[in-house]
């Protein structure tokens, strides 16, 4: 009765912008690491730990934000979490020592872990027939974030500066971190102007507030001040959903987790968790290191222009580490071609996120998810055989476009598999497993990238194939029987 229109377009824009800000905040570290490596005296292992700190915050935060979203509200959770990310990023921009920067990124990761809540907030305003298309459009905002970040970094790097005294050092990369923190804080303010999810309000027994929300949506969509025809909503949610927020926080967190994993949805929750663990491990295992790999390729090709015998990527990264092996003096320079390459990757990532929403109703989201995971597995395997920066760029584009789209589509599928009393907790626990995998993947890559890069490549391929196979057996929304 509310219809679809201006309100939902505005809602998609805000939720998508949250996803865009999330993309900038998460991937900014991959550009900051080469720029800050000299100031913090970082080795590859240090970089892996720093990437891992971000993921550790996400692991813990994912578990907690799911419960907060189910008790305090979707909008409340999003405002607090993204504001935390923005503030922590702001503090990290003036960090003078590695441990403080590490702690700020850890807390930033805690705030960034509310990704599934963005999907929940959006889907609970939508009629079932519009959900797949709107959720699929979310992926394009992540891709836009991947384009905006290197553009900002490139512009900032064109005007290097250095402010230094006995106690304080502020350089170009510090300014980049500040700029990356601003979208989160701005969007937190904008989100306070939006209503809470009407489905959540009804689940909490707040009928009048739910009616007010629906009335606002009706007025926006129909561009009319006509009286909303609905005056009363019947309570359809279980009583334990309404009473959940009355528990002690930690007791309620434990109780919600136990309820989920003893319900008829427990197997679905485990399967979704394994899918997100495997796909996120693969994605972050490689994506956070692509700028570093590109930088090493550029170093090698610059210093060996006349050598005819080509080496594979694993051979190159094992002998090239710019800050310690090629030159005695540390360098914090990123070749301009790296920025161009990342922008190209971002543009390529836009393509599947345009195709999927347009064809989602015809082929279904699951079809595109399986295709994405299988295609990215093949591109990851082919990384072992590349011998030039051009080949590296092509495969990086394919891998990031397909695997990133696949992970986004998993969230689209997951938020439709659980009833409201379990939705926040189930998708957040799945995200927790995903970020745990990302943490493990980053540490493994940091350890093996210089000595045996076939290890992260192999694991990446294997996990993507497992994810594709598990997607095939997930039940349809509203059911609990698997399609094995």
From TrEMBL:
One of its GO terms (cellular component) is membrane. Gene3D superfamilies: MFS general substrate transporter like domains. GO terms for molecular function: transmembrane transporter activity. Pfam families: MFS_1. It is a multi-pass membrane protein. Residues 11-479 form the Major facilitator superfamily (MFS) profile domain. Keywords: Membrane, Transmembrane, Transmembrane helix, Transport. It is found in: Membrane. The chain crosses the membrane at residues 12-36, 48-69, 100-122, 134-161, 173-192, 267-290, 338-360, 367-387, 393-414, 426-448, 454-474. PANTHER family: SYNAPTIC VESICLE 2-RELATED PROTEIN-LIKE PROTEIN, SYNAPTIC VESICLE GLYCOPROTEIN 2. This is Synaptic vesicle glycoprotein 2A. The lineage of its organism: Eukaryota, Metazoa, Ecdysozoa, Arthropoda, Hexapoda. The gene is Sv2a_0.
């Amino acid at each position: 009765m509310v219809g679809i229109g201006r309100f939902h377009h505005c809602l998609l824009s805000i939720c998508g912008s949250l996803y865009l800000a999330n993309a900038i905040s998460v991937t900014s570290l991959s550009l900051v690491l080469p720029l800050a490596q000299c100031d913090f005296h970082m080795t590859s292992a240090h970089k892996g730990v720093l990437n891992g700190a971000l993921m550790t915050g996400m692991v813990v935060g994912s578990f907690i934000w799911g419960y907060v979203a189910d008790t305090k509200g979707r909008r409340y959770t999003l405002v607090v979490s993204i504001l935390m990310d923005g503030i922590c990023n702001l503090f990290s921009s003036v960090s003078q020592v590695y441990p403080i920067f590490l702690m700020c990124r850890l807390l930033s990761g805690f705030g960034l872990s509310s990704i599934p809540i963005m999907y929940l907030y959006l889907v609970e305003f939508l009629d079932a027939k519009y959900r797949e298309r709107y959720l699929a459009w979310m992926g394009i905002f992540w891709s836009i974030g991947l384009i905006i970040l290197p553009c900002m970094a490139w512009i900032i790097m064109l005007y290097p500066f250095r402010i230094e005294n006995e106690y304080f050092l502020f350089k170009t990369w510090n300014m980049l971190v500040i700029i990356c923190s601003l979208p989160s804080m701005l969007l937190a303010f904008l989100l306070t102007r939006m209503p809470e999810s009407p489905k959540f309000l009804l689940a909490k027994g707040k009928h009048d507030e739910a009616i007010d929300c629906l009335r606002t949506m009706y007025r926006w969509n129909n561009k009319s001040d006509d009286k909303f025809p609905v005056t009363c909503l019947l309570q359809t949610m279980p009583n334990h959903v309404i009473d959940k927020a009355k528990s002690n926080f930690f007791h309620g967190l434990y109780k919600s987790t136990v309820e989920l994993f003893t319900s008829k949805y427990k197997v679905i929750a485990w399967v979704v968790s394994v899918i997100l663990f495997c796909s996120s491990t693969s994605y972050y295992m490689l994506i956070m290191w692509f700028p570093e790999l590109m930088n090493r390729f550029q170093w090698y090709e610059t210093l060996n222009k006349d050598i005819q015998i080509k080496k594979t990527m694993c051979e190159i990264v094992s002998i090239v580490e710019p800050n310690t092996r090629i030159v005695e003096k540390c360098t914090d320079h990123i070749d301009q071609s790296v920025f161009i390459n990342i922008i190209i990757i971002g543009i390529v990532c836009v393509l599947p996120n345009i195709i999927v929403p347009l064809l989602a109703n015809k082929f279904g989201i699951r079809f595109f998810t399986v295709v994405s995971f299988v295609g990215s597995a093949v591109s990851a395997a082919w990384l072992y055989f590349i011998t030039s920066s051009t080949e590296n760029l092509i495969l990086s584009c394919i891998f990031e476009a397909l695997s990133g789209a696949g992970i986004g589509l998993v969230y689209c599928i997951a938020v439709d598999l659980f009833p409201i009393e379990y939705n926040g907790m189930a998708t957040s626990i799945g995200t927790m497993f995903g970020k745990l995998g990302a943490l493990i993947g980053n540490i493994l890559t940091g350890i093996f990238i210089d000595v045996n890069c076939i290890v992260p490549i192999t694991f990446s391929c294997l996990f993507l194939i497992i994810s594709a196979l598990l997607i095939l057996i997930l039940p349809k929304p509203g059911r609990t029987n698997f399609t094995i």
